[in-house]
Amino acid sequence: MTDNKLIDLVNITKSFGDTVVLDELNLYIRENEFLTLLGPSGCGKTTTLRIIGGFETPNKGQVIFEGKDITKLPSNERQLNTVFQKYALFNHMTISENIAFGLKIKKKSKIYIQDKIKYALKLVNLDGFENRMPDSLSGGQQQRIAIARAIVNEPKVLLLDEPLGALDLKLRQDMQYELIRLKNELGITFVYVTHDQEEALTMSDTIVVMNQGYIQQVGTPEDIYNEPKNAFVADFIGDSNIIPSLMVEDKLVNILGVNFPCVDIGFGRNKPVDVVIRPEDIDLVKPEHGIVTGRVTSLLFKGVHYEMEVTANGREWLVHSTDLFPVGSEVGIHVDPYDIQIMNKPESEDEEAALIVE
Amino acid sequence: MVKKFFSRFYIGIILLFLYAPIVILIVLSFNASKSRSKWGGFTFKWYHELFQNEDIMAALTTTLIIAFTSALIATLLGTAAAIAMNSMKKTPRTILLAITNVPMLNADIVTGISLMLIFVALNFTLGFTSVLLAHITFNIPYVILSVMPKLKQLNSHTFEAAQDLGASPLYAFFKVILPDIFPGVLSGFFLAFTMSLDDFVITHFTKGPEINTLSTKIYTEVRKGIKPEIYALSTIMFVTVLLLLIFINRRKADKNAPIRKV
């Protein structure tokens, strides 16, 4: 990944009828970056991708590609290719013909096309599939052909619209590794759309969390997970305990009436905040060693860990632990200062929006 | 066993009632005797005479030209209409589809008379053109009806995918959309062709005195008294339509069969 901006979205606004899907969106994508647009359905992530791809025109704003304004350029003249959610292979053509489609339009020589088909099929581990028809392939194979069809055109950017959405879990995990490998071998920019936070955390260099047409947070997977900017991000990425609290002073926060030491500074004195504590960051200890004490109310075995709910100071705390505490047992809750993440509390929706835009 | 026998017997009876008149017609077309009640031996005489009859041959040519031309134009218009309707929002699409279906369900005589009235009102001379226009009109719904399901099956992203790979919208349509819906387009064409070939009522009201199609020709001939050539002509028409229908249905059956080309 370099620091060169490849794509720059400037003040993009898009609405369908009365519904505003994107509101003054600003985002840049760097060369060679794996950027993921992550959010629930209807958050505007697919629309953003379609605007980059040239399938939608924004009502306002500009799409800059390598310094040139391409907002009005039709999709067939853009130097990027898309992998669609449901593959969108051409069913009446063989796999070779599918892959050759873009190259034939560009009037490449027969030998060049043959070489490219071979290379692309090898790259997606489907050598020998040249003369098969799309409907004789499994979903995973079809998706790889869709990727092969896109990359033979040597795009600078590959746009992927929930490409693994239709595959089963095991295949999805395999394909995640495949995509990372492909990205490294090709050395091009990937813009990836998904609602699956795990997919986003696994593959991305940068994650853009979106909700209701606004960007909530941009950052590395570690940033997004460990230091969510607001309650939405914290809640959307993984499980978490989000507790309205009071920042007493620097490095001290009052959670449900009990003072917890933390590491955050600069929030002011006696300021209402939201606290995020990841369930795996809560340590269950003997009652006398805890900062607060509570009682285990439910216990689930999840494979890698136990998932427990502990009632303490009038609230359910979600806890992930490899140690088992039976239902009804008295436990102490301990949280290390650096595991407490403090977030500003938005006082109104407008302020929330303002927070996000900054 | 008994139940099976009765159900077969029942089907047999139905088929007998349905097809007996046509079988009699076919048999009579090969009857050497002019009598309708006596078998005078097998002959191709009527067929021979039929092809010597210039009036009937002229009607045949007209029929084929009208059937082919109207089917072709209706296929072009109907396919374009179906594509446009498919990309509409649900409510306008449903309403439009219902409107286009009306001519199919409408009694032929109503369609025929109303078409005649509009031609007359516009001072349009009834003749070849008016028949052709009428046939195009009633053929379009059949084309829409057979193209629409194919369009619905289409992955909505294939058109975009083609453009994404550098195709112009027109190139994308001919290379990607048309091949996928072509079976439906072809079925629509043959269905329209058959309907046109088959039509009497609408043609009768819109044709004027100058021209005749086979069905209107038969009608006028019959009024003068039935000649055995008419049996021969009717037999040929029946067989042609039958073959066309078998062909269309076979195509549909093939498409539904789960075939996988490797």
Write structural notes for this entry.
The complex is a heterodimer of chains A (358) and B (262). The radius of gyration of chain A is 24 Å and the shape is elongated. In chain A, the strands form four sheets. Chain A has a six-stranded mixed beta sheet, with helices on both faces. In chain A, helix 2 crosses helix 3 and helix 3 packs across helix 4 (139-151). With 358 residues, chain A is of the alpha+beta class. In chain A, strand 16 and strand 17 (306-312) form a beta hairpin. Chain A has helices at residues 45-53, 95-105, 110-123, 139-151, 169-186, 197-203, 221-226, 231-236, 349-357, and strands at 5-16, 19-30, 34-38, 60-65, 68-69, 80-83, 157-161, 189-194, 206-211, 214-219, 241-249, 252-255, 258-261, 271-277, 282-285, 292-301, 306-312, 315-321, 330-335, 341-344. Chain B is mostly helical and 262 residues long. Chain B has two domains: 1-32 and 41-46; 54-227, MetI-like fold (Orthogonal Bundle). Chain B has helices spanning 2-29, 45-52, 54-86, 90-105, 108-121, 128-153, 158-164, 169-198, 201-206, 214-224, 228-256. Chains A and B meet through helix 2 and helix 4 of A and helix 7 and helix 8 of B.
